[in-house]
Amino acid sequence: MRIFSGIQPTGALHIGNYLGAIKQFLELQEKEECVFCIVDLHAMTIPYDPRTLPKNVLDAAVCYLASGIDPEKSILFVQSQVTEHTELAWILNTVTPVGDLLRMTQYKEKSRQFQKDLNAGLLNYPILMAADILLYQTEVVPVGQDQQQHVELARTIARAFNHRFGPTFVEPRVSLPKTGAKILSLTDPKKKMSKSVPPSCLYLFDEPEIIEKKIMAAVTDLGREIKFDPIKKPGIANLLTVYSQFSGLAIPKIEKKFRNKGYADFKKSLAQVIIEALEPLRKKRKELLSREVYVREILSQGAKKARSIAQSTMEEVRKKTGLV
């Protein structure tokens, strides 16, 4: 079974990225054929500094590798180094209704956020994402909850293309983690964790003292009871989810562990659990940052492998669509 997923090179990863997607990647690469992509073309749809993009791409690769992605088991590459992504995206534009794009939740949110920089790329973002997925005949796309709608659109686009030009693409299905699919903000547990609001984020490679400071300052709820109740106690419910994901303990066991204890005890324990879980990743990242040539070679070899698959798909697409 072939798996595809990607992460934008838009700065440091937070624990929501890790628990919602990367943790799935580590499990999947042990038993499936995995293709992981650093989607630098997607990063161009919002204001960015071209001088820092190359560094961000390299940092993203380091984050993947430090998190446990194994280049011997998985393909890891940079999207723009495989030009078939953009070629297929253009072709898929011709079978995608504009109305479907306008209904995308993320487009609505981003268009409000970047009113002065609204561009066609932001609207067409889901088509490029569909091309990323369909190019590799992907069967399963492991993502966080916020990307589920985009994968569903990729299915719709694949179906439309297959109907018009004949069977060509696999219709991918989404894979969400059973828990941790949507980690919420530390400062506003009614919203998802987001890099656009730095205080709300716990970054994957934060130093231990920063982790402790952020967790101790995290918003909680009225009362003292450590209980999982997303409606009445969204702050504690979010922190319990994080605790469970990093410790491997079921939420009921954590609730029992902190029965008759207050929020301070719970938060101190949570901070320590996160620090210990992420320590190996921090060490690996520091090592990889000093081995830039090695990381670039991994990306180069990954692009060659990805290109081989992509070219095969595009040969069929060109034939089906009359592009000879």
TrEMBL record:
A motif ('KMSKS' region) lies at residues 192-196. It is found in: Cytoplasm. One of its GO terms (cellular component) is cytosol. HAMAP family: Trp_tRNA_synth_B (MF_00140_B). Its EC number is 6.1.1.2. The gene is trpS. L-tryptophan binds at D132. It catalyses: tRNA(Trp) + L-tryptophan + ATP = L-tryptophyl-tRNA(Trp) + AMP + diphosphate + H(+). GO terms for biological process: tryptophanyl-tRNA aminoacylation. SUPFAM superfamilies: Nucleotidylyl transferase. It is an enzyme of class 6 (ligase). This is Tryptophan--tRNA ligase. ATP binds at Q8, P9, T10, G16, N17, G144, Q145, D146, I183, K192, M193, S194, K195, S196. A motif ('HIGH' region) lies at residues 9-17. Keywords: Aminoacyl-tRNA synthetase, ATP-binding, Cytoplasm, Ligase, Nucleotide-binding, Protein biosynthesis. PANTHER family: TRYPTOPHAN--TRNA LIGASE, MITOCHONDRIAL. Homodimer. GO terms for molecular function: ATP binding; tryptophan-tRNA ligase activity. InterPro entries: aa-tRNA-synth_I_CS (IPR001412), aa-tRNA-synth_Ic (IPR002305), Rossmann-like_a/b/a_fold (IPR014729), Trp-tRNA-ligase (IPR002306), Trp-tRNA-ligase_bac-type (IPR024109), Trp-tRNA_synthetase (IPR050203). The keyword Chaperone does not apply. Catalyzes the attachment of tryptophan to tRNA(Trp). Belongs to the class-I aminoacyl-tRNA synthetase family. Its main location: cytoplasm.
